[in-house]
Amino acid sequence: RFALLLSEKRPFFLESSDLLASDTDALYTRSVTDPRVGLRASWRDERLTGTGLLLRDKGGGLTPIPGAYGTGLALQPANDALISRAQTRIGALTLGGIVGGRSYHDDSGTRLGDNLMGGADGQWLVTENLRLKAQALGSRTTALDDGSGVLRRGGAVRGAMAYLGLYGRTEHSETDFSVQELTQGFRNDVGFVAQTGVRKLVAKQNAQWYELGAVNQLNLYLNAERTEERASGLTVLQRWTPGVWLAASRNTQLILEIVPDEKSRVQGAAPLLDSHYVHLWGQTTPAQWAPLVEAWFDTGRLVDVLAGTTGRVVPGCRFGFDIQTRLLPWLELQPRLESVVLDNPVEGRYREIAAQLLSVVHLSARQTLRLILQRHSFGRPGIDKQAETAQSLTYAWRRSTSNVLYLGATRGDTGLPATPNRSTEVYAKWQFDIGEVLR
């Protein structure tokens, strides 16, 4: 129902990424799909920090169109993007400003509208253990979804977002409370905004203990949240989650959560759906050849949001694993699997599987060969299932950390198995530091 937040891994965007971070994900570099030209500047001193990115993005991804009950998607045209943030410290007070936006155009250069965003944020260190956080943003959008998933220029739509949070910490406890208001017209195409037209309240309380025998740290916590539609006051999501987290040797971490009462709506006219489930998650480092093993499992009564027009609560489970291995000194393998199974007695069982295999062959200290295989499928029996596959092979030669040559090829299939859409790309990329080349 809602867009997914993905972690950034591209080196150009990871530099000074801490300067872009905020509690509301107001700036999100993963929204940049295919940058052709980029310029970045960063500044740090004792009182002032700031960073700015100016980019020409080929586009080709998806632009989220947020709403109260789900995230719509529109095809992302080519665009020029600005992402910038600056902060200054005045004693216990930190003040900042955010400016960003996109100007969309087609292949002929015809403008398709803009999305502009700006605002301010601040933090006040009330005491050594208590911090007050706030952020306010406004937006103006003329690149509007025409109803078919295509952005076209239209009349300006304005919106706003406000966030207020209080965070406190002692040696054995953490308290986090926040409220956020998002108007229906707010859109931020350089940030991560999956939901608008809502009011969100989140409260988290955590109690901590240390060095309990084999357990290095033990946390007992209670999280509660409520999201309601601003116009009607209807509940969109409401839940409370008690849980326990512990850490032990060998990088071992375990989480057990019980969600006894989660109420949600698929759309405004739909009834509240009452789900409940148990969540398990764990990770560890079992051996030198397996530096990280991670697994998770949810089971209980889950919401099938695609059932009918109002959704349905059905028995189901979510599970997956991610294993990093170094079976040989020159070979890395990382298989990953995620799956959802919903036993819907009316529409039929829904099954979704996402699998990936990442393999890296170290040809030498400077040369690597990376292969990525991906497959994603979903659907129900008797209904055409959607499937996507992707393969990527990349050779990399590293003269240094900032001087790297890449040669590679990718291939992908999307759509129905009987009539897939295929795409193939061959590419060469040279990343270098001008100062190093001149030296």
Oligomer: single chain
State the end-to-end distance: 52 Å
Low-confidence stretches: none
DSSP strand tally? 23
Structure, described:
- With 439 residues, the protein is mostly beta strands.
- It is built from two helices and 23 strands.
- The strands form two sheets. The chain has a 21-stranded antiparallel beta sheet, with no helix packed on it.
- The radius of gyration is 24 Å and the shape is globular.
- The mean pLDDT is 93.
Draw up the topology in text.
Elements: H1 11-14, E1 35-44, E2 48-57, E3 62-66, E4 71-75, E5 78-90, E6 93-105, E7 111-127, E8 130-145, E9 151-170, E10 173-182, E11 198-212, E12 215-229, E13 235-248, E14 252-264, E15 273-284, E16 292-304, E17 312-328, E18 331-342, E19 350-362, E20 367-379, E21 386-400, E22 403-416, E23 419-431, H2 434-438
Offer a few descriptive terms:
single chain, 439 residues, mainly beta, two-stranded antiparallel ribbon, globular
